[in-house]
Every structure is written in structure tokens, then in C-alpha cells.
Specification:
Blueprint: H1 3-101, H2 103-118, H3 125-137, H4 142-158, H5 167-179, E1 194-199, H6 206-219, E2 224-229, H7 234-246, E3 250-252, H8 260-273, E4 278-283, H9 290-307, E5 312-320, H10 326-335, E6 342-346, H11 356-363, E7 368-372, E8 380-382, H12 385-393
Parallel strand pairs: 1-4, 1-5, 2-3, 2-4, 5-6, 6-7
Antiparallel strand pairs: 7-8
Bound molecules: guanosine-5'-triphosphate and magnesium ion.
Length: about 400
């Protein structure tokens, strides 16, 4: 090997490893780059995974919330349906009670009218006279009866009444017209506070009605307080205490024989202090004499006006439907002492004289607010003219 060869060889030796090294380096770089890319890719994938996981968690959370909301909405709807169903059931059972309660009155009025109508094939004066007699006997009262018959006569004249079979529905219309007097809007309750004073002759059903009213308004969510202002007999205080107990309502009472005005005075103070919505005062139906009774009521009335001016006052006269026309006399008598805002007509369930509701509406300028159709705590209803007539003619 010559020098040249040697040099060349050396050169080759040098060149070859150099060439190899660069290649290796590049390879390494590529490898490192690849590794870095892998790491990078893994990191990106990890990042993406984390982001996706976060998003999925968010979506799941939102979905859970939506699910809960839907559940709540469904629950609310079910609850609303239940409440509506309960109200419908209550209304139906009220109406059934009314129908049942009015059964004697119904057979008295409607039964007798049916009997009259059966005997006639055409409209004539004799038919009107017989109808007139039946209506008066059914306690509808002379004034209302005269109006009703005059209206039927007019309709027969105008050709709007041709057959006896048409009389019943016309009669129903007429009675509704008279009774809707009681449907006029009730007084507006501005302060939200109210006092009811329950008055009437002994045995009319005052204490029972106080108990029923207290239970009704308490059920409607009102804060109710009772005042035992019939201090004439110990039994009267005990009777009211029993009703208060049954309806879980507070009662303000004093000893037997104490001043009823003082009971009402204390009850008003308690109603104010305890922020009560409604104070219902029971009163005596009998004192030593009639003048005593009326003077006592006047005094109570004045105390309420003076001590509780911000409260709405409702003076309710209780009339026993079984007393028929006598009830009208009582209303006139009490009306001279206090301004009566409304009537509670009790014991409609036990009488055939329910027609008195029509007479009261026609002859007294006082609306019927409540009717009693039984002795139970639930047996007091707000008077509704259409419902009453429907129950009667059902
Ligand atoms: N069937 C029936 N009985 C009733 C009704 N309301 C009251 N009564 C009954 O009538 C009677 C007299 O009722 P009370 O509430 O004590 O009468 P009151 O007016 O407070 O009588 P005094 O306190 O004596 O003045 C009781 O036996 C009651 O159960 C009603 O709507 N229907
Ligand atoms: Mg009583």
C-alpha cells in the first residue's frame, strides 16, 4: 500500500466514522423528535381527555339537575291535581249534603207543585190560584209569592208560557232571581282583621255556628280567636270551650255571670296582641229580659267599634229555619238594635220550611251568608243562590 493509499485509507477511515456518526445523530434526533412528539401527543391526548371528562361531568350534572327539575314539576303537578280533586270532592260532598239537607223542603215545595201541575192540562186562572196557595204554604212568603205568580201570568199573556209542564223551569228562574240578592259582593276586608259578632234568640244555633265558622276559617289558614260573650250560663261557656277544643282554637272566657262587654274587650286586646285574623264572638240568646239582652248587645257592639276600629265588622244574625215566618220577626227586632250585615240560617236539614230563604231574601234587606245543614262541624256552608236552587229542584 503506497502513501497515497494510506492517506486515502486514513481519509476513508476518518470519513466513514464521521458519516456514520452524523447518520446516528440524525437518527437520534429523529428518535428524540419522535419521542417528544409521542410525549406531546400523549400530553395533548391527556389534556383532551381531561377537558372531555370535565365537559362530560358538566353535562351529567346539568342532566341531573334537569331530571330533578322535571321530577319536582311532575310532583307539583300531581300535588295540584290532588288539591283540585280534593276541592271538587269537597264541593260535591257539600252539594250532596245540601241536597240531603233540603230533602224535606224539596218535597214540601217541589212535591206539592208537581201535584198541582199533574191536575192541569192547560194554563188557566185556577192553576195560578192553586200554585199561589202552595207557595205560601211552603213558607216562600206572601211578597215573593205575589211576585212569582204575577210574573207567570205575564208570561202566559205574552205567549212565553203555554203548557203547565213549562211552569217548573220558570219557577226555578224566578226563585234564583230573588235569591241572587244574597249573592251581592261581600264587604272588602282591607286591614285583613275581622270581627264577627254572632247574635240571635236562644236556641237558634249561635254557639254551634261559631264553632263551625271557626273550624271553617281555621282550615282556610286564618288565625282565629273565640270570645265567650254569653256569660249568662256556665254551660254556654263550656259548650263553646268544647267547640274551641275540637277545632284547636284559643278561647277568651271569663266566669259565669261576668260582664260580656269585658270578655269582648279582653278578646279584642288578645286578638291584637296575638295578631289574629278573625275574632268570633258568641253572645247570649236570653238574659233576664228582652231589654237586658238588647242593651247588652248594643254595649258589645259599641266596644267593638271603639276598641277595634281597624277591623272589618260583620254582625251576623242567626235564624232557625224551623221557626218559619217567626224568623222574619226576629230579624226585624234585632235589626232595630244593630246593623245586621248578614244572616246565618240554621237547621235547614230538619225542616220542610226551607222556603223561608226566599221570603227572607224578598222581605229583608239582609243577605243570607251561611246556611246550617246539620249538627256536625262541617255542616255550615256559604250560601250560594244557584247551588241552593239546583239542590232544591234536582
Ligand atoms: N240539625 C241541625 N241542628 C242544629 C244546627 N245548628 C244548630 N243546631 C242545634 O240546635 C241546638 C241549639 O244550638 P246552639 O248553638 O246551642 O244554639 P244557641 O243559639 O247558641 O243557643 P243559646 O246559647 O241557648 O242561646 C243544638 O242542639 C244544635 O246542635 C243545624 O244547622 N242543623
Ligand atoms: Mg249558645
Amino acid at each position: 500500500m503506497g502513501l497515497f493509499d494510506n492517506i486515502f485509507k486514513k481519509k476513508e477511515e476518518k470519513v466513514v466514522p464521521m458519516t456514520w456518526n452524523r447518520h446516528e445523530e440524525e437518527k437520534e434526533i429523529v428518535q428524540v423528535e419522535e419521542k417528544m412528539q409521542e410525549v406531546l401527543d400523549e400530553e395533548i391526548v391527556e389534556d383532551i381527555k381531561t377537558e372531555v371528562t370535565k365537559e362530560v361531568v358538566k353535562v351529567v350534572k346539568v342532566a341531573e339537575e334537569v331530571k330533578e327539575e322535571i321530577k319536582e314539576e311532575v310532583k307539583e303537578e300531581i300535588k295540584e291535581d290532588d288539591v283540585i280533586e280534593e276541592l271538587v270532592e269537597e264541593k260535591q260532598s257539600f252539594f250532596q249534603k245540601l241536597v240531603k239537607g233540603l230533602s224535606k223542603t224539596k218535597s214540601n215545595i217541589i212535591g206539592n207543585i208537581d201535584n198541582v201541575l199533574k191536575g192541569f192540562t192547560k194554563i188557566d186562572e185556577e192553576l195560578f190560584e192553586e200554585l199561589e196557595e202552595q207557595l205560601i204554604m211552603a213558607d216562600i212568603g206572601v211578597a215573593a209569592t205575589i211576585d212569582i205568580i204575577a210574573d207567570l201570568r205575564q208570561k202566559a199573556k205574552d205567549g212565553r208560557l203555554k203548557e203547565p209542564s213549562e211552569i217548573k223551569s220558570l219557577l226555578k228562574e224566578e226563585i234564583v232571581k230573588i235569591l241572587t240578592f244574597s249573592d251581592k259582593p261581600k264587604k272588602q276586608d282591607e286591614s285583613g282583621k275581622k270581627v264577627m259578632l254572632i247574635i240571635g234568640v236562644n236556641g237558634a244555633g249561635k254557639t254551634t255556628s261559631v264553632g263551625k265558622l271557626a273550624s271553617k276559617y281555621r282550615k282556610e289558614g286564618k288565625k282565629v280567636l273565640l270570645a265567650a260573650a254569653d256569660t249568662f250560663r256556665a254551660a254556654a261557656i263550656e259548650q263553646l270551650a268544647e267547640w274551641a277544643n275540637r277545632a284547636n282554637i284559643d278561647l277568651i272566657k271569663h266566669k259565669e255571670g261576668s260582664d260580656p262587654g269585658a270578655v269582648v274587650f279582653d278578646a279584642i286586646a288578645a286578638a291584637k296582641a296575638r295578631k289574629m285574623d278573625l275574632l268570633i264572638c258568641d253572645t247570649a240568646g236570653r238574659l233576664h229580659n228582652k231589654k237586658n239582652l238588647m242593651d247588652e248587645l248594643k254595649k258589645i257592639y259599641k266596644i267593638i267599634e271603639k276598641e277595634y276600629p281597624e277591623a272589618e265588622k260583620e254582625m251576623l244574625l242567626v235564624l232557625d229555619a224551623t221557626t218559619g215566618q217567626n224568623a222574619l220577626q226576629q230579624a226585624k227586632l234585632f235589626g232595630e238594635i244593630v246593623d245586621i250585615d248578614g244572616l246565618i240560617l240554621t237547621k235547614l236539614d230538619g225542616t220542610a220550611k226551607g222556603g223561608i230563604v226566599v221570603a227572607i231574601n224578598k222581605e229583608l234587606n239582609i243577605p243570607v251568608r251561611y246556611i246550617g245543614v246539620g249538627e256536625g262541624i262541617e255542616d255550615l256552608q256559604e250560601f250560594d243562590a244557584a247551588e241552593f236552587v239546583n239542590a232544591l229542584f234536582e
